[in-house]
């Protein structure tokens, strides 16, 4: 009888240890609210890039809003593809995925919402 209680206690401890070690850590970025970001956006075949105002860093762009590329094509004539426009967006910056065209960049800007797009680039955003 004593041996059975020891086995039961042993297996209970094993199960508890496995349950606590298998818990995944919460994704801190998943709950993070999108931030409003202002900067320069360029779209051309094979390249969608964003440079924040006053910064030299460039990010790959993923348009989960499905509005950025559409509004860009309505703002810029076909002959002007590749031109830079000023945008204000809500989005998040995430590490670029390896093995994708974004991997050339350290980070990717994930656009959640397009707020503003214009050909007129403000003087403080060059």
TrEMBL record:
Organism, as annotated: Mucilaginibacter antarcticus
Span of domain NlpE C-terminal OB: 33-120
Protein name in UniProt: NlpE C-terminal OB domain-containing protein
PROSITE patterns assigned: PROKAR_LIPOPROTEIN
InterPro entries recorded: NlpE_C, NlpE_C_sf
């Amino acid at each position: 009888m004593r041996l059975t209680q020891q086995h039961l206690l042993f297996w209970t401890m094993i199960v508890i240890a496995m349950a606590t070690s298998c818990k995944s850590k919460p994704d801190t970025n998943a709950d993070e609210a999108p931030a409003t970001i202002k900067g320069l956006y360029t779209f051309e075949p094979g390249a969608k890039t964003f440079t924040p105002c006053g910064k030299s860093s460039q990010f790959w762009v993923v348009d989960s809003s499905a509005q950025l590329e559409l509004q860009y094509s309505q703002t810029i004539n076909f002959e002007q593809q590749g031109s830079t426009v000023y945008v204000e967006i809500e989005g998040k910056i995430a590490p670029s995925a390896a093995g994708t065209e974004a991997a050339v960049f350290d980070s990717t800007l994930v656009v959640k919402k397009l707020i503003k797009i214009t050909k007129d680039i403000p003087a403080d955003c060059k």
